[in-house]
C-alpha cells in the first residue's frame, strides 16, 4: 500500500499479497530519477526459496523494509532480513547498502504493539534509517 501511495498519491484500503515491479519517474533536486520498485509482500511462511530472495537482493540498489506497528511478528523478522541483505550485498563490495526501516500504520496508535523507540533502537543497532508513517 505504501508503494501505491508513493506512486499515485492515493490511499487504498485493501492490498493483496501480490508481488509487483513498478517503474516511476521523479524529479529530485532538478534531476530526473527513474525508480524501479520491486514490491514483495512478506510471506509468513518461511518456505520461500532463499535463491529467490537472493535474486531480489542482487537486483536492488537499496531497501525499504516495512513492518506494521500493530504486528510484532512483522517487526521481529527484520533483523534476520537485514542481516541476509547485508551479507549478500556488502559481501561483494565495500559500500554500505542503503536500508530504511519503516513502521507503518502510525494512525492506528491505539493498536500499537511495537513502540517508536523499539523501531529507532533496531535501526540504530543495524545502521539503518528509520521512519514511522501512516
Automatic annotation (TrEMBL):
Its EC number is 3.6.5.2. It is an enzyme of class 3 (hydrolase). Pfam families: Ras (PF00071). InterPro entries: P-loop_NTPase (IPR027417), Ras-related_GTPase (IPR051065), Small_GTPase (IPR001806). It catalyses: GTP + H2O = GDP + phosphate + H(+). Signal peptide: none annotated. GO terms for molecular function: G protein activity; GTP binding. Keywords: GTP-binding, Hydrolase, Nucleotide-binding. It comes from the Eukaryota. Belongs to the small GTPase superfamily. Ras family. This is small monomeric GTPase.
Amino acid at each position: 500500500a505504501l508503494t501505491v501511495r508513493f506512486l499515485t498519491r492515493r490511499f487504498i484500503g485493501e492490498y493483496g499479497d501480490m508481488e509487483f515491479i513498478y517503474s516511476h519517474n521523479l524529479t529530485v533536486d532538478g534531476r530526473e530519477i527513474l525508480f524501479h520498485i520491486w514490491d514483495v509482500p512478506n510471506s509468513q511462511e518461511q518456505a520461500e526459496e532463499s535463491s529467490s530472495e537472493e535474486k531480489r537482493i542482487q537486483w536492488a540498489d537499496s531497501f525499504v523494509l516495512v513492518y506494521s506497528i500493530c504486528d510484532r511478528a512483522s517487526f521481529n523478522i527484520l533483523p534476520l532480513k537485514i542481516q541476509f541483505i547485508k551479507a549478500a550485498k556488502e559481501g561483494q563490495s565495500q559500500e554500505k547498502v542503503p536500508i530504511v526501516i519503516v513502521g507503518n500504520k502510525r494512525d492506528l496508535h491505539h493498536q500499537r504493539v511495537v513502540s517508536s523507540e523499539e523501531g529507532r533502537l533496531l535501526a540504530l543497532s543495524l545502521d539503518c534509517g528509520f521512519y514511522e508513517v501512516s
